[in-house]
Please model this.
Amino acid sequence: KMTQQMRDLQLAQARKPPGPSSPNAAKRLYRNLSGKFRVNYASFDEGSLVGRGEKEKLRKSYLFQSNAALFEAVELQDLDRMQELLKQYSPEELDLNTPNSEGLLPLDIAIMTNNTPIARALLQAGAKESPHFVSLESRSLHLSTLVREAEQRVNELTAQVVNEAPNADCSEKEKQLKAWEWRFRLYKRMKAGFEHARVPDAPSNVHLLVASSSSVQVTFSEPLSINSAVVTKYKVEWSCSPTFSPPLGEAVIDKLKNLHFTIQGLVSGTAYYVRVSAYNMKGWGPPQASVPPFAIPSNWREYDGRAPRRRGQAEALDHLLGQVKTVHQHCVCHEPCKNQPQSRKHSVSKSLKHLFHPGSKFLKTLKRGLYLTAIFYKDDNILVTHEDQIPVVEIDDTYSCLLMQDFLWFTKVSCMWDEILWLRQCVTVSQSSCSCILQTRFKMLLAISQMQGLLGIQDLGQVFFEPVKDKQGNILIVTLKEVKTNQTFESVRWVPVCKLQTSRKSVSSPEEPTALDMLLISIQDKLAYHQRSSHALSPGLYLGYLKLCSAVDQIRVLVPEQLPNILCHVKIRSNPNISREEWEWLQKMASVEEPVPAEPEADTSQNPLFQELQVAIRELMTLVNIPLQEAKDFRLYSQEVLDFGDKVSFLLLLPPSDDVCTAPGQNNPYTPRSGFLTLPLQIFELGEER
Model:
């Protein structure tokens, strides 16, 4: 059958345009023609394809050629070319898992020629073995057939070349002969690779851990031995019996990018044994039991039956807000807003046109007072008004209240951008008799409404953690928002940040810059802060360091510049779950008056969490520039594990009680190295919530 296919292809060769210069490349293109990919190349030459159909057929021809090129790269063991094709095309476009006319897939050729780098790259891309090989016997028979037919074809072509006189046809047959000789050698190499292969050894580094109260996770690595064929899949088995009789379940893993598996739906408090085995073209190898041999699904909350701290909090706050709104809904001041939608959602493209409307009330210069500025940015560009100014509106030109209290109140309001109209009308009720503080906050709400109206955007973004103040008495409250849409806005001017910084004509001296000048000078740092504060930690268990310092009107917390929405921290491990057994051990350690020893003792040296904590504490102390000997008086917060969703959790390391919060004027002998900053505690809490 295969021989007849090749003869048919040879007859069509004269009608085809010149192929690749390599005989093997030419045969590679012909050999991979199948019913799915067969294209009449003469029709391309005649120009008979038109319109959309022509484009579609042309695209398919390109994909066919890329599929053929992939086979050729694998056969020639060209790893660079194969990786280039995998980057350029998707697995579907390459037909990565569609057998060719010989019933082979690229992965089959790679593993039977024992080309480990190419086989692993194909497995990472999602390649599979041919479904034709249902048994060892069927694979062996298939390879023997390929070798026999290739040898027969070589003999036929050799006889034709020897017996025919030199001419054009003879030259063409010599090329065919060379191609078939090369293919004959390839098939023999594949057959020898299969015959000499053996089943794989057991996987290495099989570790079992408790993932939750109803699941365990097993992680593993490839077998240590490299003398067998490439492993193409793994099998995870679990049971309540150490003999695995009866087995409870199994799972086959053929996506080998991450060698781990989470077993779900288990019963809390029950011991489960797990083992893993590897598979290659010769079959399944011996299983490897996990370390430890079993795990009991559990969570630290089971120790005392504690419910999650945040359970129901969001619902309770929504309910409370609804009650407050109900009480105020009959106020006269709210009559005009009954028909007002709760959330005004203007399109950004429409609303940003207001920036260039001649009636805009954005300020050009600052007088002595309190102001609000909104920074919208996209990539390295910033949005400005028609006068190349950052949008600024006035809050109060006679501000004389306590700035930090009002600023922190403003940051809380930023969580309710859609409710500004309602909040403003609530404050209006007692406007005639309100205090200086209430008057200022009412003006803040007015300024927010003005900014939202001029921009046509409800969400003004995140408040920068501190106002910008100058010596002339100007104070700027700054909000930042990244515009991620790719939509093209009409009449909108995005100005590169660097251009805005260089083109602005300063009206102040370098010794006493105005708040606007100070904002422009530091705008890159503020944009970087905003981007970093939205980054999330990768899943895992972390050790955090809680360090506070107090001032007259606020408490500040130490955070890293790279992740200002989280405490100073190091990662303990990738598994965020603390099991009940581990939490019991932590409680036992917390009840001991003596500090945790620097070197592991006999009863704790086998505890993985103890060893992980020791490494993490050393790393954290180095990070915050505290000598390790000083950490002997530090303690772990043992009241709870701080859970941030299901994938991130924290254990807290606390200094001695007298040093948790540094008072004004108190010396801190150990100052962290560069790369840290202190945020107001309320700002930090809001950032963590975001």
Summary: Residues 168-196 form the longest helix (29 residues).
